[in-house]
Amino acid sequence: MSAGQLRLCHRDDIPEGAARGFLPLPDAPRNVIVVNRGGQLHAYMDSCPHYRGGTPMAWRKDAYLDAEGAHIACHAHGALFDIETGACVSGPCLGRKLTRVPLSEAPDGSISVPAQVAGRAARES
């Protein structure tokens, strides 16, 4: 892993069709949501754009998808987001998007994010 990167997990920690939340640093106030869809990993800050400052979206640990697994869901108010783009497709935040987080994958399958993600997480809380 290169300098300036924070390891979140291993690719195998996120099964196909699942989503998990990871803290980029132990004291970070926001998770990074990572979704595995079609073998592609997509990552967003765990911060719904409906409320100023954002709100965490899962109602329990790693419960980031709707019942069908088709969308990322904000369980605080029912908004649904496209997994590939982060765009709100239903709910009170239409026209807004989740904040995308760039991921890096090492040859050993380790998934990491830029170190500044922890700073962004702190500013959004």
Compose a concise summary of this entry:
By secondary structure, the protein is mainly beta. The chain has 1 helix and 9 strands; from the N terminus they run βββββββββα.
Which strand order spans the largest sheet, edge to edge or round the barrel?
1-9-8
User: Tell me, what is the CATH class?
Assistant: Mainly Beta
CATH architecture: 3-layer Sandwich
Element-by-element helix/strand order? EEEEEEEEEH
CATH topology (level 3) name: Rieske Iron-sulfur Protein
* Portion of residues within helices: under 10%
Give a description of the structure.
This protein is mainly β. The protein has one domain: Rieske [2Fe-2S] iron-sulphur domain (Rieske Iron-sulfur Protein, 3-layer Sandwich), CATH 2.102.10. Helices cover 7% and strands 32% of the residues. The chain has a three-stranded antiparallel beta sheet with strand order 1-9-8. Strands 2-3-4 form a three-stranded antiparallel beta sheet, with no helix packed on it. A hairpin with a 5-residue loop joins strand 6 (79-82) and strand 7. The protein is globular and about 40 Å long.
Descriptive keywords:
125 residues, mainly beta, Rieske Iron-sulfur Protein, 3-stranded antiparallel β-sheet, 1 helix
Q: Topology, please?
A:
Elements: E1 5-10, E2 19-22, E3 32-37, E4 40-45, E5 71-74, E6 79-82, E7 88-90, E8 104-105, E9 110-114, H1 116-124
Antiparallel strand pairs: 1-9, 2-3, 3-4, 5-6, 6-7, 8-9
